[in-house]
Amino acid sequence: MTGDRAVAQTKMTIQQRAEVDGITADVTCTGRFYDFLEKRAGTWGIVRRQPIYEKDRLDPVDPDARLTLDPGRLARFPAGPA
Q1: For residues 28, 55, 12 and 1, what is the CA-based torsion angle, rounded to 10 degrees?
Q2: Which long-range contacts (CB under 8 A, 24 or more apart) does 15-22 make?
Q3: Measured between alpha carbons, how far is 3 from 67 in angstroms, rounded to an integer?
Q4: For residue range 10-48, what is the model confidence (pLDDT) as tens digits?
Q5: pLDDT band at 77; cut points 50, 70, 90
Q6: Which of 4, 14, 17, 38 has its CA 20 to 30 A from that of 49?
């Protein structure tokens, strides 16, 4: 924090159940939010929120189900950290 400005980092996890290519899966996304805050008229508030996604995971709900993702579609997305 410097005067009327601050930056906060918050770890986040987003979980949802969704259908992926006809298979019900639990989807988990993990990452961080960088919040840029500013004090205006005596009140702190978020000026900007920058999400940084670190990892996605798909787990079929049915343990016998096989989820196969299209490598060509996956290649269109940027690679995450190793």
Answers
A1: -170
A2: 17/61, 20/58, 20/67, 21/67, 21/68, 21/69
A3: 51
A4: 999 999 999 998 999 999 999 999 999 999 999 999 999
A5: confident
A6: 17
The residue count of the chain comes to 82
Share of the chain above pLDDT 90, in %: 74
pLDDT above 90 (res 74): no
Residue with tokens 């986040």: 12
How far is it, in rounded angstroms, from Cα 76 to Cα 67?
19
Q: Which two tokens stand for residue 26?
A: 């639990």
- For residue 44, give the amino acid letter: W
8: its two tokens: 């906060």
